[in-house]
Amino acid sequence: MGSEIQAVDLRPYAPRGLLGNRHVQSLLTSGPIRKRRVQRQSAAYLARSQREIIEAADGTRLLGFLNRAPEHRRDALVILLHGWEGSSESNYLLAAATALDRAGFDTFRLNFRDHGESHHLNPGLFHSCRLLEVVDAVGQVRRAHADQAVFLVGFSLGGNFSLRVARSAPEHGYGLDHVIAVSPVIRPRHVLDALEDGLMIYHLYFVRKWRKSLQLKQSLYPNRYALDEWFALKGLREQTDWLVRHLTEFPDLESYLEGYSVAGDYLADLSVPTRIITAADDPIIPIQDFHALPRPQALEIEVHERGGHCGFIENWRLDSWIEHRIISELDRVLDSRGPFPGAARPEKADSSG
Fold it and tell me: What CATH number corresponds to the domain at position 278?
């Protein structure tokens, strides 16, 4: 059976003083002060990024960015997925990608539909149950790098997508060598409850970003979207309920929220090696949701006492320990796996036509 662990070898995570506060952790990780530092540190990395549009089987187009590590290159690519209303340039994702790049990993930062500068690519709106287009896009990247080990790392909602991709990949004909989900959403209705009952700043943060995103979408497709009634609503629950009923195939809010849940026995048959890394003090993702997960052989759950939501900030330079942890975990996999054990290695596609 898989296991739940509380400690990590190599370098433990032990924030001190005010950094031990879960709200400080959660707010610093995506805040403007850290953003300036991450953007400065990643400037050369961003300048080398190659923009790619991936077209899924259903015609959906997703925006991504490929980087080849400039030195100390390893035979491995890491696909990174951001959280809701984040992007391929979110602090936590870009910091992790830059650290992986320095460590010799190639990286591919994938934007979900309507995230980053991609609202114009598809008429349909993003919602969290649009799994197949992400499964397809990850599969295409995986097959394009058939001569490398390919890892998938996701944060928050991106962690939720990573878990669902890990479960779905084998039935879609491809393997992944390892998956890491950082602070992943497990049961969405519990997350919505936490956002409503917790500090108002989290609720306001997501409402503000979502309103900005939908304003842009409506401006690009004015004949398709008349959202004045939605913009008059104030809360995430009411806003989500309205969009679900008016613009998705789901009959009600509860059906939609359960549509992207990974709770219950969803992960019971997981076969792709996967590690969840989370914090017991996460103010957005209730720790009880992790305790209730099944323990298939392929799943490891790593719980830390502190860290907040996608935070794990370890000093006042705003460095995040999670970057070190991700690299150490992928190093462990590369050192132990030999020539592609476990996850199936896809064959190179025949390009002869």
Answer: 3.40.50.1820
